[in-house]
Write a structure and sequence with these properties.
The complex is a heterodimer of chains A (about 110) and B (about 270).
Chain A: H1 2-11, E1 17-23, H2 28-37, E2 44-46, H3 54-58, E3 66-70, E4 76-79, H4 83-105
Parallel strand pairs in A: 1-2
Antiparallel strand pairs in A: 3-4
Chain B: E1 4-7, E2 14-17, E3 27-28, E4 35-36, H1 38-49, H2 51-54, H3 57-122, H4 128-132, H5 140-170, H6 174-180, H7 188-191, H8 197-209, H9 222-230, E5 243-245, E6 251-253, E7 261-267
Antiparallel strand pairs in B: 1-2, 3-4, 5-6
Helix pairs in contact in B: 3-5
The chains are: A alpha+beta (about 110), B mainly alpha (about 270).
Chain lengths: ~110, ~270
Amino acid sequence: MYEHERSLVKRLAGKPFALIGVNSDKDRVALKPILKKEKITWRSFWNGGGTDGPISREWKVTAWPSIWVIDANGVIRYRNVRGPKMDEAVDKLLADMESGAESAATP
Amino acid sequence: MAANRFVCPGCSTTLRLTKEVPAGKSVKCPKCGTSFVPSTESPPDTVRATPPPRVAAAPSYQDDVDNERSRRPRFRPKRKQGVNPLLIVIPIVAAVLVLAAGGVAAILLIRSSKGDDQVASAAPKSNAPSASTPAPSSNPSGSMPNGPFSPIQPRDEAPSHPGFPPNAPGIPPNQPKFPTGPGTGPPAAPNFPPGASIPNGPGGTVGPMNPMNPMNPSNPNPGPFKPTGKIGLEVGDTAMDILGQDIDGKKFKLSDYRGKVVVLDFWGNW
């Protein structure tokens, strides 16, 4: 999983794209060496030390991992897309952004 | 036994003839063997025999009778005294036993009435009259256990029937356990409270509708699975902002990435 995300982040570097994590581990100190070891360069929110943290509670996330794909306007467009589907979803949103930007720019 | 007595001329023993011997026939004495004709000598015997009952024998009998009478009253009273006491004692004993039984029965009746009163006072239902009425019949002791048992049995039966409704509310509490179960463990429980309306919705409908059906996990299952799909944000909703801090403790917001396609990944290193 880390590998796919790393490749996604690497592939979309320079694009209006961000991978944001919400980490629900218990020990934040123990997590840091893992971030280095797994080369997790993207940023993650700290859920408070468990799966019952405030963020997952507010988002009503009951299964992990849980993927939310949000477009540039902050609208949720896809849920729980994994692997190639995640790439397709992100690519489509990026394409829509570019087309939208062009359409917005033309008028 | 009208036996003819006569004396043997040979040995002078008195002999008895069980059978009347025709006149003129000889009779042989069993002791001396002399044969003689009793008829000849029988007249004095017959005279003896016949008159004694009539004349000579009668007084003797009368004497005997008198003696017997004199003796009989002596003995008879004794006999009567010996027999009569038994005849008197037996009914007395029987009467005493009857009285004792009646007294015991009365005591038991009193106790039973008290017990019934206690039961009646303890129990809201007044079964005392029903228990007291059968008591005087014959079995006060039997009515005693029947009295208290009869109210107890309906009590046992009564809770058994209402026992189902208690079980029904006892089962619905398990419903939240079922939703939490398929909802990937304990975290589901704390996550639901904000959206408690939905899990309570199916639980409330299932509970009153079919209190016995909650045993079927199929009913509560769609509850938690549907919330996971519907509760919270869905595709098309605007993502709520996240104000938090990263692993290093630096504060940042999800809205900071507005204008970018964001993949929000709830993850954990487990």
